[in-house]
Amino acid sequence: MKKTKYIGILIIVFIVLSACHSKDKEDHSGHDMNPETNEQTDVNEISLSKQQIKLGNITTQTIAETQSSLNQTFTGVLTINQEKVATISAKAMGRIEKLFLKTTGEYVKKNTPVYSLYSEDIAIAKQDYSAAYKQLAMPGDFGKNAQNLLKAAKQKLQYYGVTNSQIENNKGNIDVSPYTTFYSNTSGYVSEIIATEGSYVMEGSPLIKLADLNTLWLEIQVNVNYARNLSVGQSATVSFADFPEKTIKAKISFINPEIIPNTRLLLIRLQIPNQNLQLKPGMQAIAKINQAAVKGLFIPTDAVIREQNASYIWVEKRPGVFENLMVETGIETNGMIEIKSEIDASKKIVITGTYAINSEYKFRKGSDPMEGMKM
């Protein structure tokens, strides 16, 4: 009786050890078993029971290439239209004696005084003009030569930007002022003041910039995947955070051909009409760009697991067994994401419950499906 009891105990111990050994084999091999068929699965696969599939709300479907309408919304900032910026430059070499404009944002009308310049070159031309004018009354060749001298001096003063009325004021003056005031030849808002009073400038040096705000730029940064479907002249509807009721129709005027390396973004620019100057540079705006239907392979966004180094999906390899596939993603629209990688049309892709499968995989395997892998 005792011998029989002893043999029974040995049998129980053997069964327990065998089970532990089998479990150790499973853990070390990285494989698990299909609970429905007892099939062994590969490293990048996971097997789930019917109950787990039901509880995880895991559903699959085959997908095919479709056309998806793209109505993308982007946020950007209004900026000054640089094509409408006028630069007031120094007409001659000299010293800035006085700046009449000292505040950015100030509105400047055409023919408003901008700066006063001390210039020896202009002073000499003024003296030549005054002296020639005095010689006009002299007899003989002196009077005839004075006509040519007067004409040459006037042309030089006009070259320096001296107005006709300023030139006429030098007629007959005994003392010619070395200072000359220059006026704006356009209207606009002061966007930048470059010069300072007392500074010496060369001919052509920029002094002040005036911006015309009747049109503005809306600059947005767009992922390169979206930008491939955009083109200059494409229409958009623009709304503004500061004016919720206001919408404007605009068009894309520029697409930067250079990608920003660190972000993989492209600068897109829209030209915005600014009637009554209601809009201001620096305001936020939202552009809804209407694109033609794009043909591609689209699946729900939640069906893609996106990690730092890779994006992947789960597909049903056979009943109860799922495998992960690394994919390259494209544009997103209306809750769908483009899959740019080639996928077997017969494969059933996991549409819902993706994260449930992923969590179970990590729990069993102790690692991410794509650990160590990069796109």
Account of the 3D structure:
The protein is of the alpha+beta class and 375 residues long. It is built from 7 helices and 23 strands. It has helices at residues 2-29, 50-55, 120-135, 141-159, 164-168, 224-227, 354-365, and strands at 45-47, 59-61, 66-80, 85-89, 94-99, 107-108, 113-118, 179-183, 188-193, 200-201, 206-211, 215-223, 235-240, 247-255, 265-273, 284-296, 298-300, 305-306, 311-318, 321-327, 329-333, 336-339, 348-352. A hairpin with a 6-residue loop joins strand 13 (235-240) and strand 14. The longest helix has 28 residues, at 2-29. 23% of the residues are buried. Mean pLDDT is 82; it is low at 1-30.
Give the mean pLDDT: 82
**Using DSSP, what is the number of strands?**
23
In what range is the share of β-strand residues? Answer: 35-45%
- What is the first-to-last residue Cα distance? 68 Å
Question: Quick gist of this model?
Answer:
The chain has seven helices and 23 strands. With 375 residues, the protein is of the alpha+beta class.
Q: Would you spell out the secondary-structure blueprint of this structure?
A:
Blueprint: H1 2-29, E1 45-47, H2 50-55, E2 59-61, E3 66-80, E4 85-89, E5 94-99, E6 107-108, E7 113-118, H3 120-135, H4 141-159, H5 164-168, E8 179-183, E9 188-193, E10 200-201, E11 206-211, E12 215-223, H6 224-227, E13 235-240, E14 247-255, E15 265-273, E16 284-296, E17 298-300, E18 305-306, E19 311-318, E20 321-327, E21 329-333, E22 336-339, E23 348-352, H7 354-365
Antiparallel strand pairs: 1-20, 2-23, 3-12, 3-16, 4-11, 5-7, 5-10, 6-9, 7-8, 9-11, 12-15, 13-14, 13-16, 14-15, 17-22, 18-19, 19-20, 19-23, 21-22
